[in-house]
Amino acid sequence: MPRIIDETRGTVVAQDVHLADGIWSRFWGLMGRRSLPDDAGLLLKPSSSIHTAFMRFPIDIVFLDRSLRVVKVVPEMRPFRVSLAFGGAHSALELNAGAAAQAGVEAGLSQLENGEVKNPSAAVLLRVAQAMRIDPDELFEAAGYPTVRTLKQMYEGYESNIDPDLLRYLGRLPRDRQRRLLLLLQGMETVVGDGEESESAAAEPAPAQDPQNGRPARKDLRHGAHSSRVRG
Amino acid sequence: MAEFPEDRLALAEKVDPDLLHMLARMSRRQQRQVLLLLMVVENLLYEMQREKRMREDLE
């Protein structure tokens, strides 16, 4: 796990985070270590309580729920202490003392994400929209999320381009059959595409002919596909 | 009359969006052919099931 980011504030909490998700790795944690490298962290998963017995330096502890939302921050916890987190804590991130405050991590507000920086999550956008008192849909659309409005526009575009009888027919088919029909049509498209490719490859060295019957190989089909596409 | 497009919209929402996207790329003629194909297949399946049921009843 390369790094952990505070998605709400856009700050890097730890650059080099190790995951402790086994029994022994969680048991040992940072016990016996003299220090933690700068910008490093240890993510204990699952973990809703932390002790600092046999540790030699103070640490910050950030308790996270399953969706990596911060539920509790324990700053600068000294050795031989115990901390419990209630309210849905699922994992605990151990950091150098002061790192959580430096990154501005706060319980109930921060949302941590692992990996690279990416677009804000829907939850963050909703909170921002509420704080700024603006329409959340505008932020969702700006971030590329589908909204009821964009989906309606999309469906309006589809329904105006599709034969009404076909639409009525498809509307009463169950979803699994619709997906099977989609696979069938995609398969047919692939067959037509492959036919075009192989034909154009064969056409260069010699005139395209079916070796079995001597007729032009699938020329009519190709022509039909092309002409109908132009019309469409 | 004003409700008709809304009905069609409601119908479109019942259909898989990927399938709609694929069909929307086709020409109307090809869409009619897809409909014809579906109706033929449905009829064939109905006939096969009916025949199977008749055979089972005879046995």
Kindly describe this structure.
The complex is a heterodimer of chains A (232) and B (59). Chain A has 232 residues and is of the alpha+beta class. Chain A has two domains: 4-114, Protein of unknown function DUF192 (Jelly Rolls); 162-231. In chain A, 40% of the residues lie in helices and 20% in strands. In chain A, the strands form three sheets. A five-stranded mixed β-sheet of chain A has the order 3-4-9-6-7. A three-stranded antiparallel β-sheet of chain A has the order 2-1-10. Chain A has a two-stranded antiparallel ribbon with strand order 5-8. Chain A starts with a strand and ends with a helix. Residues 206-232 of chain A have low confidence and may be disordered. The model of chain B has no long low-confidence stretch (mean pLDDT 83). Helix content of chain B is 85%, strand content 0%. With 59 residues, chain B is mainly alpha-helical. Classes of the chains: A alpha+beta (232), B mainly alpha (59). The interface between A and B is medium-sized, with 30 and 29 residues.
Please sum up the structure shown.
The complex is a heterodimer of chains A (232) and B (59). Chain A is of the alpha+beta class and 232 residues long.
Protein topology:
The complex is a heterodimer of chains A (232) and B (59).
Chain A: E1 4-6, E2 11-14, E3 16-20, H1 23-28, E4 40-44, E5 49-51, E6 59-64, E7 70-77, E8 82-84, E9 91-96, H2 99-103, E10 112-114, H3 122-132, H4 136-142, H5 148-161, H6 164-171, H7 175-203, H8 219-231
Parallel strand pairs in A: 3-4
Antiparallel strand pairs in A: 1-2, 1-10, 4-9, 5-8, 6-7, 6-9
Chain B: H1 4-13, H2 17-25, H3 28-58
